[in-house]
């Protein structure tokens, strides 16, 4: 299935919960209402002819006025790929975890939590993964200030 | 294997300085006698914040950082990054650049798989194959050194072209290496792959069924070891890989269930032979040309984002790059193949013996520099 067909299918099924779609872009993507992410992902995972069984990438991006969560997924059976994006507020960003749909999301979500402070509701083990547990701040946010000291050690 | 749990568990730390963890990795094991009830990997000891660094340097300056992620396969890492930027810029490279990139990527794949096989033998208790593998890898590093001056971290692939052309006679030396190397794979098989003890240690250990592997997002030789025939070079070709004739080896489960440590190991050995095939074809296709013809004067991609993946020796390496139209990338996110492979480790470790954990870690062939970035 090509990106235009996938975008049309999503629009037909979820209507106004798909905020915008850009199937012609270099990275074909749809922006999804954050509240509907579980339903959309479940549909893409098991929908007929879709079978997105492989979550390739889940990550955040800080756009100064919002935090975006990016999901890149592929179907190994059909060979097609699609991207979903969710926009969250910068203050206490929170979204439902897709861990139950793809086991791969577990570590990816922990990384997004570690780097951007995005809370994934329903995650089984939401801890920092790359930084130490007592690290302060979220390093990949644009307004992050590198601390000068960590546990009395100069950084 | 059927195991019996007594319910009396003990927590055991394996690492971070364990010699068999291929880097700085700590495993928190819950053991019940000799049986592992649960394993929790703790990573981040090598975290250097690559993604933050990348936001603060211009596009060409990111390439040396990508070298330092997976230092065993630096050529493939920088290739993944430059392909993503080129896709964003819409650059089409000429035939010489394309073929040289294929040759370098495949040579590096052989070198990386040789490390994987050699150190794996070492982990299991067979030291000699390690020396044989490193002897042959040295010859590949010599080829890289004469081309770009470096033996480990190359900075050879540039956005739009290559750092410099290869030296005269490079093609002959590559073919000479392939001719020398191909018969040696049979030696390695006699020494290690078909060794009775090695097969016993690996063929019934760390089973990763295909559906679980896909669910955990495992890619590359680890996925193919589970019997799933998927290779980015074939399924979503880049650099004209569709023109090359090569097989995609998958795990057959010769001595046990499909998806065992032995299958993952054997896929790498078979893949090395396919690399030799590709290199021979790429050398034939090599035509004269200017390798810096398409390098832009200023690299300033239009605003937008791109996701590009390529087949690294350890699996699918993806780069998600957001550009805001300036000289520096706004956001670079790496999908690391080892990161997802390691996330499946607790699944494989449950119910295994403590000694088998070493066999499992070795078989997924992780490089912690890439996991922690």
Explain the overall architecture:
The complex is a heterodimer of chains A (155) and B (373). With 155 residues, chain A is an alpha/beta fold. Chain A has one domain: NADH:ubiquinone oxidoreductase Nqo5 subunit (Beta Polymerase, domain 2). Chain A is 22% helix and 28% strand. Chain A has a five-stranded mixed beta sheet. By secondary structure, chain B is an alpha+beta fold. Chain B is built from 15 helices and eight strands. In chain B, α3 (74-89) runs antiparallel to α4 (95-124), α4 packs antiparallel against α5 (128-148) and α6 (170-193) packs antiparallel against α11. Chain B starts with 9 loop residues before the first strand and ends with a helix. The interface between A and B is medium-sized, with 31 and 37 residues.
Annotate the secondary structure layout.
The complex is a heterodimer of chains A (155) and B (373).
Chain A: H1 3-14, E1 18-22, E2 29-32, H2 37-46, E3 54-62, E4 67-74, E5 81-88, E6 94-96, H3 105-116, E7 119-121, E8 149-150, E9 153-154
Parallel strand pairs in A: 2-5, 6-7
Antiparallel strand pairs in A: 1-2, 3-4, 4-5, 8-9
Chain B: E1 10-14, E2 26-32, E3 35-42, H1 50-54, H2 63-67, H3 74-89, H4 95-124, H5 128-148, E4 157-158, E5 161-162, H6 170-193, H7 196-202, H8 210-215, H9 221-225, H10 232-235, H11 261-285, E6 304-312, E7 315-323, E8 331-335, H12 337-343, H13 345-349, H14 354-364, H15 368-372
Antiparallel strand pairs in B: 1-2, 2-3, 4-5, 6-7, 7-8
Helix pairs in contact in B: 3-4, 4-5, 4-11, 4-14, 5-6, 6-11, 11-14
